Amino acid sequence: MTSGLLCLLTLPFVLGRTPGDLEPLIPSTPSSPFPDSVLRSGFNNSFGPSLGSVSQSLSNFAGFEDDRGTCQCSVTLPDTAFPVQRVERLEVTAHVLSQKFEKELSKVREYVQLISVYEKKLSNLTIRVEIMEKDTISYTELDFELIKIEVKEMEKLITQLKGSVVGSTTVVNQLEVEIRNMTLLVEKLETLDKNNVLAIRREILALKTRLKECEASKGENVPAAPPPPAPGSCGHGGVANISKPSVVQLNWRGFSYKYGAWGRDYSPQHPEGGLYWVAPLNTDGRLLEYYRLHNTLDDLLLYTNARDQRLVYGQGAGIVVYNNYMYVNWYNTRNIAKINLNNNRAEVTQTLPDAAYNNRFSYANVDWQDIDLAVDENGLWVIYSTEASTGNMVISQLNDTTLVVLNTWYTRQYKPSVSNAFMVCGVLYATRTLNTREEEIFYYYDTNTGKEGRLGITLRKVQERIQSINYHPFEQKLFVYNDGYLLNYDLIFNREPK
């Protein structure tokens, strides 16, 4: 709609030229007061881009020539004038918004840079924590505190970012989750390290207590006690007690490998020597596929100078190493294999007569250990059951060269009710579970005399299940695999031989 408002405009204003300027360019005719070109053109209703151009058509106008020869015209305009003030306000608002946007954009750039920096820090921390998780080097409290400080700094930044960044915060939320996981992992590692430290401190306290007792007994007329048995000898009256566990470390394959065995090679020719071995089973708790050898305890603790070997036929955690050979139950059979640790080859395999296998009579809470090999001062042994023994434990001494059975003893102890067993000086000692933190050495069978009986020696543990126990005659220690953790126990013997 257009209004009836009549506006007088001089042609020079409309066309941008004076009449004098137009006359030589646009010749007029006597029959019209306007030049022909002007009569053929006009203004459009919207004052669009054609305004002021003589080449565009003009419309909605009326023109005449007054008495003084001046051309005048009337043009019909829209009823609303052009909103100049609103446009100006819009321009100001746009400018303000542009400034705010630039300010926020600069903040986002700054936070992106900070996030990039802390992503690198988080990556570096992740690498350091992974190294700490794989290694068992004793880290000091200062190392853990420094890592905690760095993690707390990142937590503060994440809190600031979440409060400042508007819109999608996916990256920030992801970083927050990773930092939270990092905190938990550091705390877990610190706890594990403290366990080792506490175990050492307990040993130190026990030593201090013994020293105090020795000092207190000075000058007293105490009858001389018999000396402790020499390492590797059987001049004692059997196991009387056992020390608290010393946590050596987690097995080298990690938390998931709860089944396995570990120990130290014993050679009668070189009793003080012998390499250390760790043999975690696969997570199925059955297949022995990899084992690792270390020349010294320090190498084992630091995961250095390790020799990794692979098998395809080991079954169960009834593993033992004797005189530089590893003895295992051959997978899915009642056979025993003798493996040379120098070349990882099975040099001898021998069937154990009538032995039950494949979980027929395994230990309580531990599968695939129907055949359990053991070593003591007298040589190589195997603990198992047969159908003829109705599941009761059978003890056989083996020739360590040919694996032929030398002698066999039959007990009255049902093997599936036993949690594990070991041999010391020809005496079988069996354990049972009391609760999640205690086992009990409750039964013995002496192959020297044929006698058997009950004991009540408490054996503490750090995890719920014990998978294997191996005895080292020279050190007179038990090497226990406890839900993936490697534990040591010192045996205490009766001084007087029975």
From TrEMBL:
Localization (cell): Secreted
Example of a GO MF term: cadherin binding
Where does the UniProt entry say this protein principally localizes?
secreted
UniProt xrefs under InterPro entries: Olfac-like_dom, Olfactomedin-like_domain
Q: Which GO terms describe its biological process?
A: positive regulation of substrate adhesion-dependent cell spreading; signal transduction
Keywords, A to Z, come to: Secreted, Signal
Return the SMART domains for the record: OLF
What would be one Pfam family of this protein?
OLF
Quote the cellular component terms of the Gene Ontology held in the record. Answer: cytosol; extracellular space; intercellular bridge; nucleoplasm; perinuclear region of cytoplasm; plasma membrane; protein-containing complex; specific granule
**What range does the record give for the signal peptide?**
1-16
Residue ranges annotated for the Olfactomedin-like domain, each copy included: 233-495
Protein name according to UniProt: Olfactomedin-4
Per the UniProt entry, what species is this protein from, by scientific name? Mustela putorius furo (European domestic ferret)
